[in-house]
Amino acid sequence: MKFSQTQSNFYSPRGEDFPTALSSTTHLGIGAHADDLEILAFPGISACYGHAKNRFSGIVVTDGAGAPRTGAFAAMSNAEMIPQRQKEQRQAADLGQYASVIQLAHPSSAVRQADRSQVVADLVKILESTRPHVLYLHNPADRHETHLAVLLACLEALHKVSAAAHPKEIYGCEVWGDLDWVPASHIVRLPCHAPAALGSSLLNCFQSQIEGGKRYDRAALGRRHAQATFGNPTQPDSDEEIVLALDLRPLLKTKSSPTEFLAPTLDLFRKETLARLEALSAKP
Q1: What is the mean pLDDT of residues 228-238?
Q2: CA–CA gap between residue 34 and residue 203 (Å, rounded)
Q3: CA of 214: how far to CAs of 1, 197, 202, 246, in Å?
Q4: Which of 168, 200, 250, 261 has the fewest CB atoms found within 10 Å of its own CB?
Q5: CA 38 to CA 28: how far, in whole Å?
Q6: What phi and psi, each to the nearest 5 degrees, are found at residue 208?
Q7: Count of the separate structural domains present in the chain
Q8: Does residue 118 lie in a domain region?
Q9: Does the residue 271 lie in any domain?
Q10: For position 226, which CATH number holds?
Q11: Enclosing domain of residue 102
């Protein structure tokens, strides 16, 4: 299968061919950058790690050329950064026992343009080939513009694929910005049942980022532990690591835009937050 960018590549840790690896995929993550999968789709990676039947595949949409860099990577050019980040993503696929990883290598600037037809076409091919049960995406409240652009491309692709290719579960997960502000009735708590060191080890594969000044390994682990503990003030923790997500299936079932989808959640957050304050501040 060919994709639109010449630098795109497919990798299977087991050496499987494209149809075999993708058709066996049960859990699929689509992220904007190398290392986004290991943050937003970690519940899916965990669900498949060491499992006989569940298999995780990941899609990285951009080439990652514009990543911040310091230290040993400070002098690395954008052209040199692309194969470096692709190498790191393949290492994470090996460690995480992925079925496959596809790096589409679209420039971030192109993904953020109004015309994302090439990205959408690539994603349609992948979604039709994988037909996953569970899909992990960026969420519409993410603060990173490229993440949002990739989400929009994913939603457009989902509307183009056949109904048979629609996942049973679609989650918009945390990366840039937590989702702990979302009212309990609107949030999904995704446990991460994996060996304790797996999450940090996966992110440590991305040395161009870790040594480049972004300690995602520590930050992502800390957030998952925080979400597990601070989810409910009156009950003991039920899981050690949690990723928070929005259920994005309504965006597939209806014609509502991501803005229309998110607005009621924002309105409810405002309503519930002010109601708690007002109830305690009311004069006797």
Answers
A1: 90
A2: 10
A3: 34, 19, 14, 26
A4: 168
A5: 12
A6: -65, -25
A7: 1
A8: yes
A9: no
A10: 3.40.50.10320
A11: 9-254
